[in-house]
Write a structure and sequence with these properties.
The protein is mostly beta strands. The chain has one helix and 17 strands. The radius of gyration is 24 Å and the shape is elongated.
Length: 197
């Protein structure tokens, strides 16, 4: 039994990350990541790299969990996603970008769930949709837009479902259909599936 305990301890010591600075490498010899360990867990600032040498993630850790502001990058070097974590859970404003650098979406997180304003953009920079989340659920007024900037549809969500009057518009801005989700009454346009977009 003592031999077994000694073998298990030796295997654990061999594979457990050491405390202090550490660096891992791709097969090519290019650095994969570097940072520090404390008590066998990631601690403090870390950098991760794409195989082409470009930075892929810059983040801080506390007790092995992502903690504080962090930035994720495309292989091109452009910012892909910026956010903040508290003990590994998303918290605050997150911004995702197209590889060319334009903002793709902006969302707010609270206690690890989307909670607050949300916006999504076309690659041209025009607004594609906007609304609110509450505790991870779509809530309140949501608006969706065509690539030319015209309003496509709008309506409200309540308890994860469409609620009340929803309106749909063509690309010139002309109202083409209305549906009251409280009464399931349609005005104009054929009834169809209730998709989010």
């Amino acid at each position: 039994m003592i031999k077994l305990i000694m073998v298990v301890r030796a295997v654990y010591q061999h594979f457990r990350p050491p405390d202090g600075p550490a660096e891992r490498f791709y097969g090519s010899g290019q650095s994969k990541c570097r940072g520090d360990y404390l008590n066998g867990k990631q601690e403090g600032p870390w950098e991760f790299y794409h195989e082409n040498g470009q930075i892929s993630l810059r983040s801080s850790f506390r007790n092995g969990e992502r903690h504080g502001p962090w930035t994720l990058y495309y292989e091109s070097g452009h910012v892909k996603l910026k956010g903040n974590s508290v003990e590994g859970r998303p918290e605050g404003v997150f911004e995702r970008y197209y590889d060319g650098g334009r903002l793709w979406e902006r969302a707010t997180y609270r206690d690890g769930e989307r909670d607050g304003p949300y916006e999504q953009f076309y690659e041209s920079g025009r607004l594609a949709e906007r609304g609110q989340y509450r505790e991870g659920r779509l809530e309140g007024l949501w608006e969706y837009f065509y690539p030319n900037g015209q309003l496509k549809k709008r309506g409200c969500f309540a308890n994860r479902r469409r609620d009340g009057l929803w309106e749909a518009f063509d690309e010139t801005g002309r109202l083409v259909a209305q549906r009251n989700f409280s009464t399931d009454h349609w005005t104009g346009g054929p009834p169809g599936p209730a998709s989010r977009n």
